[in-house]
Amino acid sequence: MNMIITNTCAVALTLAAPHLYAHAQTAPVVAPPASIRFEDATAGSGIDAVMTSGKLPSTQIVEVKGGGLALIDFDGDGDMDLFMPNGATLADPEHGPGARLFENLGGLKFRDVSERMGARPTRWAFGCATGDYDGDGRDDLYICCFGADILLKNMGDGRFTDVTAQAGLGDPAWSTSAGFADLDMDGDLDLFVVNYLDFDPSMPPPPAAFKGMQVMAGPRGLPARADILYENRGDGTFRDVSESAGIRKAIPGYGLNLAVVDFDADGRLDVFVANDSEQNSLFMNRTEPGGPLRFEERGMTSGIATNIDGAGQATMGIAIGDVDGNGRPDVFTTNFSSDTNTLHLNLDGKFFDDRTAQFGLGAASRPLLGWATSFDDLDHDGAEDVVVFNGHVYPQATKVAMDSDYQQPPLVMRRVGARFEVVTDPGAGLRGAHRDRTAVFNDLDSDGDIDIVVAELNGPLRVLRNMHDQSHDWIKVRLRGPTPGTSHGIGAWVELSTRTPTPRVLAKRWIWAGGPFQSTASTEVQFGVPDSWKDLQLEVRWPIVKGPAGFAPYAEVKYPVTPGSTVEFVHP
To answer: Is the pLDDT of residue 103 over 80?
Structure first.
């Protein structure tokens, strides 16, 4: 394995080393209070898009979910560009304003290159996934639609072409989110698609009641659609293996989001599906290397399907992080108003426990309806904070009528010791009430801190710049695997530790498929590094991958690292 470091003069090549320490069982050490402040940098950024999703005021369920966003380095220059699939209206679901593609020029400046895309879909779209499905070295786009989904192949010159039919895709169900990942460990990217429900615009259901008020119907009472697992054949085509792989054994749910991550640390990627108004699903990967795809649904038996009261929730957003410091990926989800967001701690890879109240994440979220969310160390104190973007689905919503307003401010919570505390003034960029839905989180201006692009229901995209602005209190990591299935390290984890005087894990990150909500999680790992952290090293563990000698067990590799560095690991 090679490692490339920028912003420093060091280059290292070492061999794999065994664990020298055990994971701490307590919360991460937190530095003295620091500030979290964002400014709205939309003006002058070059991003001038409006996310279309029906018309205001929303009258049907298809209008209220909003669209998606995707981070994609479509031009291969090393920074993340932005794709918005965009929606349409009930009057003409096939012909909306069209998808938008923005090239990242650096410094939070973007250029609209939508007209150069070639294939520029106009069908009503929701979430989207990115990945190199055909192994040509360029990331492609899968777009979830109200109607047949779309696969766009990246041609390498800023143009995309629609290859949906050739690839054997295009299911007509209303899909909301998707993720590319090498689920069978054969070196190429398989595809998991999350479906929602059946809705006919020409025959909308009659209104329902909520808190004594007449509101739009759904999802309850409407037929749910089963999720789909597509196996990549390795020749540019896919086949539906949902039945044989065990996905169809689960009762169809109102799927809205997913996280593809190795929950039990066995080198195989599992799939968590966030369902609306019912229990969530957890598909544990039981595939044997070289064998057919096989999953076991363990949502209820693992404890992650419901909250502490045993109730299913209207789950939208997903964040993955190690909240309790035990080295396993915990799951934070956002939910409906008059409920709370939920934190499920991953106890041992088999069982999860709702610890929302223990970590202070519940009460502040009760009057809000949450969507996109992410764990990120926004102030670089060594502990991950959390941001949730909010907005109600019912235009009639007010505090008096529904205990929740229609337009809502973002919820920003900073990690302080063993709990999270609300940040009352996170800067102008994170103030104000909106109808927010999706978002992406990444260091878009390459200054070491996490910036945000957020999309509002039938409103303009906003570019939010992190004002932390310190040059040497961060570390960024990018992974490059030997196969298309591991090209961005999906399924790997990265750990930052100190070597002296006693080896100790400081922070851990996962690279996962899925995203904050109908969007893509960043494949670039970021650590904030407080001054007290010295003599640091990075450790990377890859998932099981098929190589020239067959299926290789996941490898662990350690390297020393200096703050202020961007590190690129290349799998051997």
So the answer is: yes
Predicted local distance difference test score (pLDDT) of residue 3: 52
- pLDDT single digits (tens) 206-219: 999 999 999 999 99
How are beta strands 565-570 and 474-480 bridged, if at all?
Answer: parallel
**Residue type at position 498:** T
Distance in angstroms (rounded) separating the CA atoms of residues 505 and 488: 23
Residue 32, pLDDT > 80, answer no
Quick: pLDDT tens for 276-324: 999 999 999 999 999 999 999 999 999 999 999 999 999 999 999 999 9
Element (H, E) at 81: strand 81-84
**Which position has the token pair 């989001």?**
257
pTM, whole model, 2 decimals? 0.94
How far apart, in Å, do the first and last CA atoms of the chain sit?
Answer: 4
3-state helix, strand and coil shares in percent for the chain, rounded to the nearest 5? 5, 40, 60
CA distance 71 to 56: 27
Long-range contacts for 165-169 (Cβ within 8 Å, ≥24 apart)?
166/236, 166/237, 167/133, 167/236, 167/237, 167/238, 168/230, 168/237, 168/238, 168/239, 169/142, 169/230, 169/238
Q: What residue type is 98 in one-letter code? A: G
**Cis peptide preceding 219, ω within 30 of 0:** yes
Q: What is the 8-class DSSP label of residue 173?
A: S
Pick from 517, 436, 523: which is nearest to 194 by CA? 517
Buried b (16+ CB within 10 A) or exposed e, 3-21: bebebeeeeeeeeeeeeee
Chain centroid to CA 410: 17
Calpha distance 187→153 (Å, rounded): 19
Tokens representing 323? 């909240």
pLDDT exceeds cutoff 90 at 451? yes
